[in-house]
């Protein structure tokens, strides 16, 4: 069930529709460009059609890989959500699979940022990956111990913002906001937030397990969001807790 949380305003459309000519079709305008056909050629027409088909196929074959092919485009990260006292300060993914408490997909080529012991102890950041071409395009996970179940959606988000100044600013300047409650195949509840802020877009997934609250963030500046939206949504959807609950 999707709910809007006041006082954040929803983004509204201010565009206008050009008047229809008399007796024009009421069908909506196409959302994709239509290729203009070339003037017919006499003896070379079949060759031109075949060449065009080959060119289109080549363009499609070099487009962004399908998200269904996750093996080539993503790597699975296994997070342990270890406390600051037990944190060894080592990055990487070695020997984590058997003790992982959560997982999420990392886009191929993204880099891991080493989280300091102090940072882990103050705001609960457990892991973070970023696009080396644009460091502000990133995903990270924070956790809070001692929380058995989720509270109201607005309360949960406000509590997360207490230790995240950037999230506070984004909420305050949000142009649109969405909050949903979802359940996975095991019946575990996840709160899902989408915030379209001033210059930044965020996807947040929050859940409780093992007496902890886990929050997975996917952030991107607007240009990168417009370019990578499908990939970033896949990363967002890939987060889940694992093991016993």
TrEMBL record:
GO terms for biological process: photosystem I assembly. Residues 14-28 have a biased composition (Polar residues). GO terms for molecular function: calcium ion binding. InterPro entries: Mog1/PsbP_a/b/a-sand, PsbP_C. Residues 14-33 are annotated as: Disordered. GO terms for cellular component: chloroplast thylakoid membrane; extrinsic component of membrane; photosystem II oxygen evolving complex. It comes from the Eukaryota. Residues 100-240 form the PsbP C-terminal domain. Pfam families: PsbP. This is PsbP C-terminal domain-containing protein. The lineage of its organism: Eukaryota, Viridiplantae, Streptophyta, Embryophyta, Tracheophyta.
């Amino acid at each position: 069930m999707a709910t809007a949380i006041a006082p954040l305003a929803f983004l509204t459309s201010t565009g206008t529709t050009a008047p229809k000519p008399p007796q024009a079709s009421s069908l909506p305008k196409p959302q994709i460009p239509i290729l203009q056909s070339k003037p017919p050629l006499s003896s070379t027409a079949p060759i031109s059609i075949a060449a065009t088909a080959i060119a289109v196929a080549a363009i499609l074959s070099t487009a962004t890989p399908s998200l269904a092919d996750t093996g080539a485009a993503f790597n699975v990260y296994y997070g342990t959500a270890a406390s600051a006292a037990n944190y060894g300060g080592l990055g990487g993914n070695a020997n984590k699979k058997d003790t992982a408490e959560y997982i999420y997909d990392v886009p191929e080529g993204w880099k891991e940022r080493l989280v300091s012991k102090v940072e882990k102890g103050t705001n609960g950041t457990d892991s973070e990956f970023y696009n080396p071409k644009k460091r502000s395009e990133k995903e990270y996970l924070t956790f809070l111990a001692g929380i058995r179940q989720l509270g109201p959606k607005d309360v949960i988000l406000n509590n997360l913002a207490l230790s995240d100044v950037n999230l506070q600013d984004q909420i305050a300047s949000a142009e649109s906001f969405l909050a949903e409650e979802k359940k996975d195949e095991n019946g575990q509840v996840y709160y899902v937030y989408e915030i379209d802020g001033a210059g930044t877009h965020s996807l947040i997934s929050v859940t409780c397990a093992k007496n902890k609250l886990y929050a997975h963030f996917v952030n991107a500046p607007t240009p990168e969001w417009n370019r990578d939206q499908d990939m970033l949504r896949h990363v967002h959807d890939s987060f889940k807790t694992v093991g016993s609950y």
